[in-house]
Specification:
Number of strands: 7
Protein name: TIGR00725 family protein
Largest sheet: 7 strands, parallel
Strand content: 15-25%
Oligomer: single chain
Distance between the termini: 36 Å
CATH topology: Rossmann fold
InterPro entries: LDcluster4, LOG_family_nucleotidases
Number of helices: 7
Number of domains: 1
Order of helices and strands: EHEHEHEHEHEHEH
Radius of gyration: 16 Å
Structural class: alpha/beta
CATH architecture: 3-Layer(aba) Sandwich
Length: 184
């Protein structure tokens, strides 16, 4: 039997707030641009399959012919739509973990090559700490508020003592951030 080699594209998880009321129009546009740039760089976009930042990034990728994968906390599509009130049509692939948010977060982060952080709350902080522990490359989109900006300040204090120095990058520009993550 002849086994063909398949090129596996670089996978970037986009994480951030799922609460639309916490995200201003400028940050929504940045999330869309991040998704667009991920698609333009032939990367695969992964998200936690929720609303907010994840959905805007997925739309940006889809509008630019990118592959989108949602990692859902739900057991099935019915629970995803009705209990978690989460989008589904923006994803090419929707994987149901059945592990709730925290279990989903571990699978999401372990499934990617790098993480892009935009805004966020406590769930995003949970994903960030998992990404640090897993040794993932992390890119923080600056000036988007929430966890991303707060974490960046905290990270400056701990990066040397914990050997995280080269693991986290940041930028105000979505294109610069994604290109730097892909080329690390």
């Amino acid at each position: 039997m002849d086994i063909k080699k398949h090129i596996v594209n670089f996978k970037i998880s986009v994480i951030g707030s799922a609460h639309e009321d916490e995200i201003d129009a400028k940050t929504r546009e940045k999330a869309y641009k991040v998704g667009k740039i991920i698609a333009e760089n032939n990367c695969i976009l992964l998200t936690g399959a929720g609303r907010g930042i994840s959905e805007h990034a997925a739309i940006g990728a889809k509008d630019n012919k990118g592959l989108t994968v949602g990692i859902s906390p739900a057991n099935n599509l019915e629970e995803h739509k009705n209990v978690f009130k989460a989008p589904y049509s923006v994803f090419d692939i929707l994987l149901f973990t059945g592990f709730g948010y925290k279990g989903r977060n571990v699978i999401l982060i372990r499934s990617c090559d790098a993480v892009a952080v935009i805004n966020g709350g406590i769930g995003t902080l949970n994903e960030l700490t998992i990404a640090l522990d897993e040794g993932k490359q992390i890119g923080i989109l600056e000036e988007t508020g929430g966890t991303s900006d707060s974490f960046l300040k905290y990270f400056q204090k701990i990066k040397e003592s914990r050997n995280y120095g080269k693991q986290v990058i940041s930028s105000r520009d979505p294109k610069s951030l994604i290109v730097r993550l892909v080329n690390r």
